[in-house]
Design brief:
Blueprint lengths: L1 H9 L8 E7 L2 E6 L7 H5 L7 H20 L2 E2 L8 E4 L6 E6 L6 E2 L7 E4 L9 H4 L4 E4 L2 H16 L9 H10 L11 H10 L10 H5 L2 H4 L1 H5 L3 H15 L16 E2 H7 L5
Antiparallel strand pairs: 1-2, 3-6, 4-5, 5-9, 7-8
Helix pairs in contact: 3-5, 5-7
Length: about 270
């Protein structure tokens, strides 16, 4: 919770759940944090609905930018999973923000992007090979979070994990064989390329959050062409609000490529904020 509180106080990362204050009582701590009013990413995955490329793109762009800012601070989340990514629609905003939460397993690096020793911890289906196949303590870096984000991307697109079963034995076998099979419903070559780079079995070869955001899946001309009209309208409204002195507007509100319209989210998750 100390990490969550520190990130919240800095205030430059809207893609983490805000921690307001905490009160320690012996071994227990009561934490007052932001309420996310649209559930979590697992709720969306469990609908088994086919998501359009623009929806997948904006979801992953928010997650990866959140990770980039976390990693920039020399922090490694280590337990990124669907249940730890909340969805929140600020009342009257018309948009949905994804927010990373649960910093209980965070590892602090001495220097950002530098490998560090860490204990093996996390949730098995989202843990990378360097942790799951390692000893009790291994040397790894922020790329462990990119593997987890790659698993999330694979789930969002294919409705399944890249391994056959969720048993530890099945996951380990998948990692030892180092064979990432392409699901039949992943037709977009650029998207599949991004998935393979995020799910590189070799942590050294795996792309970083910053590199992922610069991948063709996010930067190609088609990505701009596919941004929903509602996203452009919301970004324009944010620009007008900023000009009128609204201090709650941030740079991501002004960028339509980061804008996830509430109207689109509501069609996927039937939940009112």
């Amino acid at each position: 919770w100390k990490v969550g509180l520190a990130l919240s106080r800095e205030g430059n990362n809207p893609f983490v759940l805000k921690y307001f204050t905490t009160n320690s009582n012996g071994e227990n701590a009561v934490i007052l944090m932001e309420y996310a009013n649209m559930g979590n990413l697992q709720n969306l995955i469990e609908t088994n609905k086919d998501l359009s490329l623009p929806i997948i793109r904006v979801i992953m762009k928010q997650i990866l930018e959140g990770l980039r800012l976390i990693h920039e601070k020399g922090l490694i989340h280590r337990d990124l999973k669907a249940e730890n990514i909340m969805l929140h629609s600020p009342l009257g905003s018309g948009r949905v923000q994804l927010k990373i939460m649960d910093f209980g397993l965070v590892k602090v690096q001495k220097k950002a992007q530098q490998s560090t020793h860490m204990t093996v911890a996390g949730t098995f289906p989202y843990m990378p090979p360097e942790l799951l196949l390692g000893s009790k303590e291994v040397k790894a870096d922020s790329k462990v979070d990119i593997w987890s984000a790659g698993i999330l991307l694979h789930q969002l697109v294919s409705h399944q994990f890249p391994f056959e079963y969720l048993s530890l034995q099945s996951i380990i076998s998948f990692m030892i064989e180092k064979k990432l099979n392409r699901p039949t419903n992943i037709l977009d070559e650029v998207l599949w390329n991004l998935i393979t780079k995020m799910l590189s079995f070799d942590g050294k070869e795996r792309i970083s959050a910053a590199e992922a955001l610069n991948h063709e899946f996010f930067t190609r001309e088609k990505a701009d062409e596919e941004i929903p009209v509602n996203a452009f309208r919301l970004a324009l409204s944010a620009q007008k609000a900023l000009q009128k002195g609204d201090t709650n507007i941030n740079k991501y509100d002004l960028d339509s490529s980061f804008t996830f319209p509430y109207s689109d989210a509501k069609e996927l998750i039937n939940k009112d904020p």
